[in-house]
Amino acid sequence: MTLLIAIFLGILQGLTEFLPISSSGHLVLVQQIIPGFYQQGVLFDVILHIGTLAAVLYFFRKKIFSLTPKYLSLLLVGTVPAVIMIFFFRQQLEGLYSNDRFLGIEFVITGLMNLAVDLPQANKELLKIKSSFLIGIAQALAIFPAISRSGATIFTGVRMGIDKKEVVEYSFILSIPVIFGAGLIEILTFRSSISSASTLSYLVGFLTSFIVGFFAIAVVVKFLQKRWFKYFGYYCIGLGVLTFFFN
Questions:
Q1: pLDDT in tens, 62-109
Q2: Residue 14 scores a pLDDT above 60
Q3: How many angstroms separate the CA atoms of 225 and 28, rounded?
Q4: Residues 35, 40, 46, 51: what is their CA dihedral angle, to the nearest 10 degrees?
Q5: Which stretches are transmembrane (predicted)?
Q6: Structural domain boundaries, residue 190
Q7: Is 169 in contact with 67 (CB distance < 8 Å)?
């Protein structure tokens, strides 16, 4: 793997992991569009995810260091649906990654959720056990390849009337246990495949996904405050239509 490919994949991961446009869906499309492109292995994919995980930890470091037991319990409740979904249904859903029509439909669904984020909130609610669990279900549904995790969780929280600042913090902090757990398992499984020849590419991919991911989180926060999520919506709907009809 060349350093240019490592940088490209780091940028792709950093942008699409946090922007509400689906990282897995874009990776599938890139594999189809670019001749000769292929995934660089499970371990490299995990390295990129760890880079974006580090971006979350650094961006929300003040919030994370001040977490209360109550907030930790809300994170636990929100994590349960994703654990169940991954454990029981991941293999059954893998076939959807090769179905362009399903991919197109899922991009459109993500786009519609992004459009709905900008709609006025009818009422204001606090983040509680019930809302945490529902946001967790939204995160679990992002196992579908073109359903954005950040888009689905932010949409769910905002439409329930939770303060947007609180929603975006909870959405990204909620991703930490899932990304960390998946990354740890893959690293333990594939640690023997790391060679000195690939270490530099891993490092470059990690740093790129971390830096780009950090700025992508800042973009999401700003777009949410300015009610600019509709632009993510237009993009995903347009991409979904193209994917569906021109597969």
A1: 999 999 999 999 999 999 999 888 778 766 666 666 677 899 999 999
A2: yes
A3: 30
A4: -70
A5: 42-60, 72-89, 129-147, 167-188, 200-222, 228-246
A6: 3-245
A7: no
